[in-house]
Amino acid sequence: MSPLLEVHDLHVEIPLPHAHLYAVRGVSLTVDAGESIGVVGESGSGKSITLRALLGLLPRPAQVTKGSIILDGVDVTGLPERRRTKMLTDAMSMVFQDSLTALNPVMRVGDQIAEVPRRRLGMSKRAAHARAVELMDQVGIPEPERRFRAYPHQLSGGMRQRVCIAIALSAEPRLILADEPTTALDVTIQAQVLEVIDGLRRDHQLGVVLVSHDLAVISQTCSRIYVMYAGRVIESGSIRQLLSLARHPYTFALLRAVPDPDLPVHRLLTIPGQPPDLTAVPAGCSFAPRCALTEPACREVDPPLTAVPKEPDHASACIRLETASQWLDWAPVGVPDLVKKT
Ligand SMILES: Nc1ncnc2c1ncn2[C@@H]1O[C@H](COP(=O)(O)OP(=O)(O)O)[C@@H](O)[C@H]1O
Ligand SMILES: [Mg+2]
Question: Is the model's pTM score more than 0.85?
Answer without folding.
Answer: yes
